[in-house]
Structure formats: structure tokens, C-alpha cells
Amino acid sequence: MSHGVILPGATLGVLGGGQLGRMFVHAAQGMGYFTAVLDPDTDSPAGRVSHHHIRTGYEDPQGLAELARLCAAVTTEFENVPAGALQTLARALPVAPAAEAVAIAQHRAREKAHFVRCGVPVAPHAVIESPEQLAAVSATLLPGILKTATLGYDGKGQVRVGTPQELAPAWEQLRRAPCVLEKRLPLAFECSVVLARGQDGTVVHLPVQRNLHRDGILAVTEVLEESMPAAFAGQVLEAARSIADGMAYVGVLCVEFFVLADGRLVVNEIAPRPHNSGHWSIDGADVSQFELQVRAMAGLPLVQPRQHSPALMLNLLGDLWFTQGTNARTPPWDAVLRLPGCHLHLYGKLDARAGRKMGHLTVTGSSSAAVRATALRAAQILGIAPF
Ligand code: ATP
Ligand code: MG
User: Fold this and answer.
1) Which helix (H) or strand (E) covers residue 129, if one does?
2) Helix ranges, 7-91 (H)
3) Which residue's CA is minimally distant from atom 27 of ligand 1?
4) Which of 253, 199, 79, 221 shows the shortest CA–CA distance to 150?
5) Which pLDDT value is given to residue 153?
6) Cβ distance 123 to 181 under 8 Å?
7) Which of 92, 161, 286, 363 has a 20 to 30 Å separation from 4 between CA atoms?
8) Residue of the nearest CA to atom 7 in ligand 1?
9) Hey, which of 107, 190, 268 would you mutate to test ligand 1's pocket, going by the most ligand atoms within 8 Å of its Cβ?
10) CB of 312 within 8 A of CB of 372?
11) Gap between the Cα atoms of 262 and 282, Å rounded
12) Which ligand is nearest to the CA of 158?
């Protein structure tokens, strides 16, 4: 649905109440909007800070009707929101991103097909939805990673497969869910870019970010001059833009890439929303990815964000609350906050669990070297392995 400008004073809605929704709410409220969050969880990070919190399931007709009644426009903060919910809402009010784009992002096979259509290289892969397809897998895809087509995040729903014999048990382990088998590629490093695309096709973007994953979970994002060769960033941006244009995308989109040992660029996946790797932009850029989300859904002008400070983000996982696996502790935030340029973001989650994203720390400074040194010191204080 095309629409005009929605000015501050109106209410903006978000499907999903996780940390991304919380930071969206913060950005929207900072600009003078009212906010509504739809999430079944009473204690959801975004629900706790929003003006309105509708506590129903994502497909609950009454919940969706209430959201549509309250809001001038709606966005989403996680890609597993049922596409049907977005379609229902889109009949009543502007929704960005659109259900069709979210449906592509929530299914690995459709996502890869879209990348191929846009002319962006993907990892060699095979779709596995039947025993016949499993039996027909080419040995050239091994060693590989079997990934469920839907509902995967933080490396969940993935099994490594070394030999043809391991394939059937791996599929059993994933309960014979529709899967994609991907060849395991030799990575030099990983990177991502967050862009926002408006109704008129305008695209603005944050700088290309370099990401370090540990155990399938993002651990560190750095946006330092030396971490991304300029020629390379141009290639990443061109690919990301064609992926967004290819689905007439409206909203914030993150595109994640692998850079192979031989220098080739391969697209990994997209997120139809702000992304963990763009959190640094709250403190290191003059327009954050969450402000971009507000602007895109409200039809406000999309201006090119400017990074004003080198930045490095450390994810704060629940593991930090447990030393040597014993009693829960509160990590020594005071010692970290004594360091210059440390910006602490905690998501208000009540229970810390290993691997759970509890918050992040962004370090900014006047030089890359200073940022890196401070971030390493913060990591040491918190018990995060050096990078
Ligand atoms: P997210 O939380 O980003 O949605 P996810 O569960 O969708 O994660 P992927 O992005 O598919 O998982 O993979 C997580 C990480 O595992 C990647 O960032 C990369 O480090 C590694 N990985 C995944 N696929 C491959 C591959 N084909 N070759 C090498 N490494 C891979
Ligand atoms: Mg990923």
C-alpha cells in the first residue's frame, strides 16, 4: 500500500517484542512517535518500553485488529512473523517490509533462488525436501552444512555433514524438515551491510561491516577503516542493492556475505529488518539503523547516514553471567564503563542463558587503534575471548 508521510505524533507499530523491537521503539519515541508492540510475551524487551503492548499471538485476529486500529504504519522486527499476519495488516494500513519480501527472507531455498535471480553468487547448495533429493546429493557439496529452510537463527537448525554417510542421520536430527545443504566454504572473513530502501526506490546505507561469528553466533562487528578495502565495499553494496531492488523492497534490509579465501564474494542470507551487525550505528553514526527503519515506514526522507566515529561492537551473551559455570553474577559493568567511549546496551531480559543475546557494547573513539585497544580491554574485563 503506498502512502504519504506519517509525522511524529502518530503511532508506529512493530510485530515482535525482542531487542530489535526495543531499539526500534527507543528510536521512534525519541523522534516523538507513540509506539505499539505486538508480542505474546509479557516480559518482552520491547513490550516493556512501548506505549502500547498487545499481548497476543502473531496471527490472533483481535490482536492484529487492535494493532491496525492503534497504528498509522507497522513494521516487523523478526522474520519468522507469519506472512499472513503482514498481509492482513497490509489490507488496513501501510506495512514495511511487505509480506512478500519477508516470505523470501524466511525461507533459505527461496532466498537463494532470489539471489541467483539477482545475479549475486551463492554457496553451492541443494534443496532437500524428500528422501529422493537426499539420495541424489552430489558429493561435491561435502563437507557441508545442512540447514533447515525455515526458523533458523544463531546457528540453530544446522548440522555439519562431513561424509555422504552422515547425511541421512543429519536429516533425521533435523526431523526431516525441508532443508538446504550448503557446501562449507573456506571463509577469509564475513561482512554485512544494512540498507534502507524507500517507496520511490531511494537506497541509503550504513558502511560495510566486518563480522566475526563464534559457534554460529555473531560475536564482534567492527567498522574500522582498515577492516574493509574500499573496492570491496563497492562490490558488496552493488550486490546488496540489486537484492533489494529485485524485490522492490521497502524498509531496512541487512545482507550478510561471506568473503572466500580466494577473494570471491558470496551472499549468505538477508534479514528483512535491522540486524545485530548494525547495532553500532546507534553510537557510531548520525542516523542509526533503527531511525532508518522509522523513516522508511513513515515515508520520511532517507538520508545517507554518516559514520562519525570508528566503532566496534561486542555482543554480550548470557554466558557472561556465569563464571566457571557456577552461580549467576552481574558482569562488572562499572569497570567497563570506566573505559572511554564504551556504550552499554542491555535488553532487559530477565534470565541469562548461555548463547542468549542479553545486550551489546559498542566502543567508539577517535582512531581505529584506540577503539580496538579499548574493546580488547573491555573484552578482557568481561571474559570475552580476544578477537
Ligand atoms: P543468523 O543468526 O545470522 O540468522 P543463521 O542461524 O541463519 O544465523 P547462518 O548465517 O546460515 O546461520 O550461519 C551462521 C554462521 O555459520 C555464518 O555466519 C558462518 O560463520 C557459518 N557458516 C554458515 N554457512 C556456512 C558455509 N556454507 N560455509 C562456511 N561457514 C558457514
Ligand atoms: Mg546469519
Assistant:
1) none
2) 19-30, 61-70, 83-90
3) 184
4) 79
5) 75
6) no
7) 286
8) 153
9) 268
10) yes
11) 33
12) 1
Backbone angles phi, psi at 313, to 5 degrees: -115, 135
Take residue 168 and report the three cell numbers written for it: 541421512
C-alpha cell, 167? 547425511
Q: Which residues, 6+ apart, have CB-to-CB distance to 98 below 8 Å?
A: 86, 90, 249, 250
Q: Does residue 225 contact residue 308 with C-beta atoms inside 8 Å?
A: no
Which residue is it, cell 579499548? Answer: 374
Q: What domains sit in the chain, N to C, each tagged with a CATH number?
A: 11-95 (3.40.50.20), 124-183 (3.30.1490.20), 187-382 (3.30.470.20)
Distance from C-alpha of 10 to C-alpha of 346, rounded to nearest angstrom? 27
The answer to whether 12 touches 34, Cβ cutoff 8 Å, is yes
As given in the structure block, the three cell numbers for residue 216 are 554460529
Distance, C-alpha 33 to centroid of its chain: 23
Do residues 28 and 11 touch, judged by C-beta distance below 8 A? no
Ligand 1 closest atom vs CA 156: 6
CA distance 319 to 255: 27
Closest ligand 1 atom to Cα of 154: 2
SS3 call for 383: coil
Per-residue DSSP letters for 234-303? HHHHHHHHHHHHTTT--EEEEEEEEEETTS-EEEEEEESS--GGGTTHHHHBSS-HHHHHHHHHHT----
Residue whose grid cell is 502500547: 52
User: 123: Cβ below 6 Å to ligand 1?
Assistant: yes
pTM comes to: 0.95
Which atom, in ligand 1's list, is nearest to the CA of 157?
6
Give tens-digit pLDDT for 22-76: 999 999 999 999 999 999 999 999 999 999 999 999 999 999 999 999 999 999 9
